[in-house]
Structures are given as C-alpha cells and as structure tokens.
Amino acid sequence: MKKGTILVIMAAVISGWAVFINKFALSNWENSEIYTTEKNLVAALILTVVFAGFLYRKEIFNLSKRDWGKLALIGLIGGALPFALFFKGLSLTSSSGAAFFHKTLFIWVAILAIPILKEKLSKIQLFAFGILIIGNVSLFLPEELSFGSAGALILAATIIWALENVLAKKFMSTIPAPIMAWGRMFFGSIILVGYMLIVGQGEQLINISTTQLPWLLLVGITLFLYVTFWYSGLKKVPAVVAASILTIASPITTLLNNIYSGTSLPANFWLFFSIILLGITTLVFGSLRTPYNAKISLT
After folding, report:
1. Exposed e or buried b for every residue in 225-261, given b needs 16+ CB within 10 A?
2. CA–CA dist 69, 85 (Å, integer)
3. For residues 272 and 275, what is the distance between their CA atoms, to the nearest angstrom?
4. Which among 78, 67, 69, 76 has a CA at the least distance from the CA of 176?
5. If exposure means fewest CB atoms within 10 Å of the residue's CB, which of 119, 188, 258, 264 is most exposed?
6. How far apart are CA 226 and CA 18, in angstroms?
7. Segment 80-95, tens digit of pLDDT
8. Nearest alpha-carbon partner for 186 in 11, 18, 85, 47
C-alpha cells in the first residue's frame, strides 16, 4: 500500500505537469487529433523499446490469447476511444467546463469498483470521500456551466476512463503493470492511427516539423512516465484510493500556470486545496489501516 501510494502520487504530479505542458505543445498543431495521435505514438514507441524490447520481452511473448484480448480492450477504452471523445468535446466547450466534468473521474471509479472489484469503503473513508467531493466542486466548478453535447462527450470519456482503470486493475492480477501500460498505448495508438487513416488524415501524421519534434519528445516521455507510474501504483492500492489521489493533479496544474504566467489563483484556492488534501490523506489513512483486498464493513 505504501509503495503503491507513493507511485500514484508521482503519477498525479506528472499528470499535473502534463496538462500544463500539453497546453504549450498543442499550440504548435492546427489539429488536436493529429497531435494526440502523434504524442501517443511516441509514448507507445518508448514503452515498446523499454518493456517489449528489453525488460518484459519474455513475459509478453508468453501472454495467452485471453491476455492479448485484455490488452487490446484496455487500448480501446484507455488509449483511443476516450481521447477522441474528450478532445472533440473540448473543441466545443471551455477548458474550465471540460476540466470540471473530468474531475468526476474518482466518483465513477468508486461506483464501478464496487461491483467489479468488490471494493468497499469504511465510514472514515466515506467521510473522506465526501470531503473530496466538496473540495473538488468548490475549487473547479466554473461560473458558467452548460452540459449539452460537449459535456456529454467529455463525461462519456471520463466514465470510459474510469472503466479502464477498474478493468486494468482487475486484469493486472495476471498481467504485469508495465505490460498493461504498454498495451494501453500500443493498441490505443494503432486504433487512433486507423481512425486517422479512415478520416483521410493519415498523411498529416508524418508531416512533423522541426518545431514540433522537440515538443513530441517532451510530451511523449511525460506520457510514458505517467502510464508507467500510474499502472504500477494502481496495481498496489484500491482503485478508489488511486483515482482520489489523482485529483491533486489539477491544483498542481493551476499552480504551474500561476508561476509561469503570473495569473492570480482562484478565490480561496489554498482553502479548497487544503480540503482536497485532507480528503485524500484521510482516505489513504483509512486504507492503510485495512489489509489490502480485505472486505471493509460499512457498519
């Protein structure tokens, strides 16, 4: 649990940095779908060289047909479909609205983890979960929020990512976490490339300028580190706890934006950030007191 918690915290920090740096990288592309596909391809290539080429080559060749099917499914619902839905929705609404819908990820993970992983929450964890919801809503609820088609697309992407997290944890009982991370990006990239070819944008994937290349390497390495730390941590801690810890990524992005651009922080930022940290700390503490995979009574 302790090692897994540290790994998930590292993934959350990387996620906060990734959102910050992706904003600058994306400005060098006219098409967000091309950008997403190319950066995912870079991450998939690094994962293939490191894990499939060296560290886990024997384990990958010994995977069963059933395990290959699991990796392909994770690639579809983790590395392809939700990306397409999210960026399409993002193009139709404000970034603040998109961010708010995406911040509900930990709620959907909790809902799905109960029937699929048989995870339960103790009273202290339920209390912490409530604190976390209050902190996130207070900090990230935009002044103007409309649902519509854009909100539906982003919410759908978030729920699919939640399903991916829960199924990935379940599948990691037989598949090592690094191989799961590789499968997510490898099969996800294949699906994205196939989609770009179908819509007639395949040629744009190879037209990479000298300005875009350094950005691709930076965001590709960042994505490689994120999925590696995230899946390694997710394997060791309850999915609800892992997804809750991940919520600190957005305040980190906000702080980085503030440091870089000098913009003012949202009203009462430190108060609500403290509430989020309190909720996460309480949730993790409650989990550390309970043996891993133990059934936690709600009474």
Report:
1. bbbbbbbbbbbbbbbbbbbbbbbbbbbbbbebeeeee
2. 23
3. 5
4. 67
5. 264
6. 9
7. 999 888 777 776 765 5
8. 47
